[in-house]
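Lab notebook: predicted structure, single chain.

Context: the supervisor wants predicted structures on file for every construct in the current expression panel, including those that have not yet been purified. This is the next one on the list. No modifications to the sequence; it matches the entry in the shared construct table.
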Amino acid sequence: MSTARLNAFEIPTVGKFLKHIVSAGKVVHDSPLPVSTQNLVTLRASQINGCGFCTDMHFKDAVAAGEDTVRLNLVAAWREATLFTEAERAALELTEAGTRIADAAGGVPDEVWENAAKHYDEEQLGALVSLIALINAFNRLNVLVQQPAGSYRPGQFA
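Prediction complete. Output recorded below exactly as produced.
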C-alpha cells in the first residue's frame, strides 16, 4: 500500500490529537529516562504492534542518536541477546507486558513491575510507563490508518 487510509495531517481533529500526543512525547523525551532506553522501548512496542511506520521511524531515530544497529537488530530477540543491560532488559520486559496487556488476565505481572522498579527510580519509572502508553497510542493510530513505512527521515517531525 502506498497511501494511508486517512491523511492524519489534513484532518483537524486528528491533527489536534497528534499535536497533543507529540507534546506528551517531548515531556517523556526530556525526562531522566535514558534516551537509549526510550529508543529500545519504542522500537520493541512498535514491532509487537506490527506498526511498520513506527518501527521504521524509531529504528532510524535510534541510529541517528548513535545507537548500535546490532543492538537494534536484536531488540525483537532481547532475551537471547547479550548486548542489553539488566535495566534495559527490565524496560523491555515491562514494554512487552504493557503492550500485550490483553494477553494477561491480570495485566502486568507484579514480578515484571518489581524488576523494573529495581532499576529505575520513581521519576524514570513514571516516564517509562508514560512512554509505553504513548507509543502504543501512536502504534494503534498508524496501524488503523495503514500509514506506509519506509520513507521516514530522522528528525522529520522535530
